[in-house]
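Two quick folds needed for the group meeting slides. Do the first one here.
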Amino acid sequence: MNKTTDASVHDDNRDDEPISSAEAASDDAQQHHQPLNELEQRVADLTEALQRERADATNLRRRHDEEKASLKSHVTSNIVRQLLPVIDNLERALKHVPEDLAGNDYVKGVQGVVKQFEKTLSGIGVQRIATVGQPFDPHYHEAVSMEDGDGTQEVVSEELQSGYQIGEDVIRHAMVRVKMQ
């Protein structure tokens, strides 16, 4: 019985023949190489995740800045829209000053207030819309009346009420008369 047992043990030992040093080094390299590949993959994954987070943060900052600028423009437009009737009334008052009071200090003071309004509006980016002599543009002008003429192009002939804009955004359309030229 021992002989059979010894023989089977001996056969098992044949499968476990001594491993050469080159094979052992190769096995060690594979064992060390596998964790290295896993680490490299993990680093690549984390780097990609970090890049996505940075891109998201950059996009968030850009969107925030755009929304902030839009909100600022919107608030400015609302405030200016509320002040426009005051400016209109001051300008109307100056158009109807009697000739004998044209050099009066009071009238000069009102003119100074109007100039100060215009300078302040300009300082916050508000511009008056160009009207008289300009081609009619419904984006900027509101036509109140149309005069016949001998031309084919619609041109603003008179400004009835000033229009204002911030950049390309219209706060109030200019109220105008249009003539064909």
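Then this one, please, same format:
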Amino acid sequence: MRCYCCSSKSFDECCGPFIKGDKHPSSAEQLMRSRFSAYATAHYQYILETYTKEKQQGLSVEDLAQSAQGATWFALKVHPTLAASSVDSLVGNLVSSTEDSSIDSTVHADAKVEAVTNAEPISKTNLKSISKPITKPITKPNNAIVEFTAYYFENKSMYQLHETSNFSVEDGKWRYHDGVLHDDCGKIKYGRNLPCVCGSNKKFKQCCATKSR
């Protein structure tokens, strides 16, 4: 089965080992992808554990589950970000040196993201309200940014969440800190005969549109 994060790999080769705890993401992008897959598969404990320690305060698995209630996350697109790729390349050695040799250092290159950013319900009425300014400037080599668009269905309507996210390394592991939502977040219309947003090369109506039922 193709991974939920829309990479070219299967779930067991891509995000699965991270969510199961068998491996740790070696880049901010890998963590972002795995958190999206965790939302798609309702692994909220993993989502909680991959926040920075500061952001974990006041959050719970129940909060995260409630925030995602009613949303079906189905596709991710990672946008090329020079800052993110540059910082990731600098941090790669840092993470590798603090983790065991089992860590997969592959960075998925195909641009196909990170899901809910705060413990609040996601809908057309409150997408903007969950956006919080990045509280820590990205000025150190153990920080990185990733821009992505995540797609989901809610009440049979299609929505997108477009965010620029802030990640940092804590105790040798990548963690999600916070992010800023873009103005194009919210309900969208997408032609049923257009190529599916997941990158499958199928028409939308023959692919992910079926998940809205």
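Slide caption for protein two: The chain has one domain: 16-212.
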